[in-house]
Amino acid sequence: MTLRLLFAGTPEFSVPSLRAALAGGEVLAVLTQPDRPAGRGRQPQMSPVKQVALEHGLPVLQPASLREAEVQAQLAALEPDLLIVVAYGLILPQAVLDIPRFGAWNVHASLLPRWRGAAPIQRAIEAGDTQTGVCLMQMEKGLDTGPVLLRADTPISNTDTGGSLHDRLAALGADVLAEGLARLAAGELPSAEPQDAAQASYAHKLDKAEARLDWAQPAALLERRIRAFNPWPVAEVQLDGERLRLHRAAAVDGHGEPGSVLAAGRDGIVVACGEGALRLDVLQRDGGRAIAAADYLNARPGLRR
């Protein structure tokens, strides 16, 4: 059976899954968020999903909302078998979920019910989780509450960043989606595993204000946040009267007044925290580029210890 598919997604994370959908069935149309102003010129830019869709000659729909009866009628007229949703960014009302013959599947970047919500990749790193993964979920009205059809896991290393884990989970999500589509096309609908709501945690959307780190917090937590917030929104601190953005750091032994420099040299800048100390390895000054801490010290020799 050739599956008639609708695909809904917006950012780069969605692109591998769109390619899996193209290989696993007939993509009737692609839903993505409206073009947004971006860059210094604030010119409207297409989403990564829209760019790939146009490359493949697919119809692209960009409604501001899916609650309008006209939009819902347009989707129903396509007579899809399945709607695939991957980081789309708009709420899907029940009327839309009910349109496809097999409902809607969502590729979600966590091992549900762990980390429902908007930022599961970053929250897993921030919390110190040692494992995460992706779930193929049958969508229902609740936020990421639907039963899980397939899942795949991956370890979180102590060097993973939000960026590295994002790329790995995007590829893993496409693999899981491809397996699900192959089973469905063969008439073998994957069995659904209900989630245990008592085990659920919520991954709040990232906020730029979170990127401002407090030296009074434990070094281990600050290290995880630096990794989680790389490449966005990028952690920042005040050090010796200057604002710095931190791209790489490591928790180390040390104690002193939080925010005080304990050591500074070729191996990095060690700063005391509420518990332990943080060694700054790669940082960025306002208006500059990311550089090694040793290079930064060449411009700030007074920090050397």
TrEMBL record:
Residues 23-178 form the Formyl transferase N-terminal domain. Keywords: Protein biosynthesis, Transferase. CDD domains: FMT_core_Met-tRNA-FMT_N (cd08646), Met_tRNA_FMT_C (cd08704). Its EC number is 2.1.2.9. Residues 205-299 form the Formyl transferase C-terminal domain. (6S)-5,6,7,8-tetrahydrofolate binds at S110, L111, L112, P113. Pfam families: Formyl_trans_C, Formyl_trans_N. It catalyses: L-methionyl-tRNA(fMet) + (6R)-10-formyltetrahydrofolate = N-formyl-L-methionyl-tRNA(fMet) + (6S)-5,6,7,8-tetrahydrofolate + H(+). PROSITE patterns: GART. GO terms for cellular component: cytosol. Belongs to the Fmt family. HAMAP family: Formyl_trans (MF_00182). This is Methionyl-tRNA formyltransferase. The lineage of its organism: Bacteria, Pseudomonadati, Pseudomonadota, Gammaproteobacteria, Lysobacterales.
